[in-house]
């Protein structure tokens, strides 16, 4: 490893063991650093090497952590809004100061490359999102002030917020959960995915040191020894769960949260459709289509996962996508030349391979299709499929895109809307106004024109149907971390 990286490891408290980078973290309870006796390994999906260990938090330790967050809540909620805002600005700055350290940890555990739309991009986005969220306010509103009375609406923090984050964007999504919760006066207990806890542990360590004790807390586990997510969802002292992950897990969270009537924000799976209209320019849209589908190696909830292309330009779009995709370097995320990396874990790799294999009899593999060594799977484009085929109906969450030919536009919208999920969708056309006018025909929470998955901090984001409950981002997303209190006089 180059010397600059070794210096980052030293600053992070990481020691070298042969060729394997080891990171051992502790949880913090009542201001005492306590090392869990039981830990689990974190492996680099590019190499299979162990890059660190994280604590297997016990049920007792979880209860103590939640109690600590609950005890810290009254003082944090009473902190003047301007003071909380200033602290949140400082948190955003701290992410930027530690950006390279966090990006390298993220690459080691998640696999995504440092460059391209990889770890440095993710951490930069996390900093920008934190900075934007810090500036949001939810001022008291006067609903009525006349002879009939005076009515105001205020928003009050909930208490302890439990955050459950996935393995695909562990740093970015942690910021999406943490910052609005803190900004509105809540305290936080976050549980990252067992596949990718290291960068989140380090970020919480950095940010937590800047906040009053107990305001920001983290628990980790391998989901086998103790099911922390289920315990958090049912915990009587956690007032809200914000979850990003699969539909099945989100449904479990909702069920286990019912007895305590928790507030919920659930951003769950999607199987996003894109529709290419016959007037689109295949060469002009190829790059946007590729990154809409293959950002983070396709391991993105709001990635383009089904592409419906009009018969008149179907072959030209396929050719343009193949020409663009074949030049994207795939390799070890720590290699500065890599633009895409491996699939993050074996379970997801096996699902991708199963869906590709099931497509071979009916579909035509235009590019890729054959797994590489370890967890590497090349960008894969498959034509000739239709609704009802597994790769179309199931969310692949990986570097594979089915391209579906259509001739009737009404049928294309029907097919795009046929599934039970509805996170995002896109329409591609040379006539932006015409495409925008069609956006309402898509059953999904976000519709993009001539791009896909381009979320931004000022635009609420959430799904319809089985893709989720509630929204994130902007004032609407931040309001979900509060209860309404109306005062009438």
UniProtKB/TrEMBL annotation:
The Enzyme Commission number assigned here is 1.2.1.39
- SUPFAM superfamilies assigned: ALDH-like (SSF53720)
Keyword annotations: Oxidoreductase
Can you provide one Gene Ontology molecular function annotated for this UniProt record?
Answer: phenylacetaldehyde dehydrogenase (NAD+) activity
Question: Where's the active site on this chain?
Answer: 267
Which residues does the UniProt record annotate as the domain Aldehyde dehydrogenase?
36-487
InterPro entries assigned to the protein according to its UniProt record, in alphabetical order: Ald_DH/histidinol_DH (IPR016161), Ald_DH_C (IPR016163), Ald_DH_CS_CYS (IPR016160), Ald_DH_CS_GLU (IPR029510), Ald_DH_N (IPR016162), Aldehyde_DH_dom (IPR015590), LUC3-like (IPR044086)
UniProt similarity note:
Belongs to the aldehyde dehydrogenase family.
Name it. Answer: Phenylacetaldehyde dehydrogenase
Q: Which gene encodes it?
A: feaB
């Amino acid at each position: 490893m180059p010397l600059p990286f070794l210096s980052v490891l030293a600053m992070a408290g990481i020691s070298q063991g042969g060729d394997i980078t080891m990171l051992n973290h502790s949880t913090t309870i009542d201001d005492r650093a306590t090392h869990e006796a039981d830990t689990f390994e974190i492996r680099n999906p590019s190499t299979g090497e162990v890059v660190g260990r994280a604590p297997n938090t016990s049920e007792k330790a979880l209860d103590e952590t939640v109690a600590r967050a609950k005890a810290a809540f009254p003082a944090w909620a009473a902190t003047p809004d301007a003071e909380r805002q200033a602290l949140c600005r400082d948190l955003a700055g701290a992410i930027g100061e530690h950006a390279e350290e966090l990006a390298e940890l993220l690459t080691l555990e998640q696999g995504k490359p440092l460059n391209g739309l990889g770890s440095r991009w993710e951490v930069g986005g996390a900093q920008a999102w934190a900075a934007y969220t810090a500036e949001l306010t939810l001022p008291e509103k006067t609903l009525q002030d006349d002879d009939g009375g005076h009515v105001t609406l205020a928003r009050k923090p909930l208490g302890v917020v439990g955050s459950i984050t996935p393995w695909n964007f562990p740093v970015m999504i942690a910021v999406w959960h943490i910052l609005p919760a803190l900004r509105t006066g809540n305290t936080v207990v976050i549980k990252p995915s067992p596949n990718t806890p290291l960068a989140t542990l380090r970020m919480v360590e950095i940010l937590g040191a800047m906040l009053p004790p107990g305001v920001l807390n983290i628990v980790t586990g391998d989901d086998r020894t103790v099911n922390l997510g289920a315990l958090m969802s049912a915990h009587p002292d956690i007032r809200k769960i914000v979850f990003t992950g699969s539909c099945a897990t989100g449904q479990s969270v909702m069920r286990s949260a019912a007895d305590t009537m928790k507030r919920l924000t659930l951003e769950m799976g999607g199987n996003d459709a894109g529709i290419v209209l016959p007037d689109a320019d295949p060469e002009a849209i190829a790059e946007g289509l590729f990154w809409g589908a293959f950002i983070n190696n396709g391991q993105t909830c709001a990635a383009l996962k089904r592409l419906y292309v009009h018969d008149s330009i179907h072959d030209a779009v396929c050719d343009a996508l193949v020409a663009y995709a074949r030049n994207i370097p795939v390799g070890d995320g720590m290699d500065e030349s890599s633009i895409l990396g491996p699939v993050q874990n074996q379970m997801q790799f096996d699902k991708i391979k199963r869906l590709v294999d099931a497509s071979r009899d009916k579909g035509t593999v235009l590019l890729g299709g054959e797994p590489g060594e370890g967890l590497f799977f090349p960008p894969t484009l498959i034509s000739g499929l239709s609704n009802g085929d597994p790769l179309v109906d199931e969310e692949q969450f990986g570097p594979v895109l089915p391209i579906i030919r259509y001739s009737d536009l009404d049928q294309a919208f029907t097919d795009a809307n046929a599934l039970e999920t509805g996170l995002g969708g896109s329409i591609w056309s040379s006539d932006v106004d015409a495409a925008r006018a069609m956006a309402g025909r898509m059953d999904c929470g976000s519709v993009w024109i001539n791009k896909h998955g381009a979320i931004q901090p000022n635009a609420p984001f959430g799904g319809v149907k089985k893709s989720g409950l509630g929204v994130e981002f902007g004032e609407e997303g931040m309001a979900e971390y509060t209860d309404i209190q109306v005062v009438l006089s």
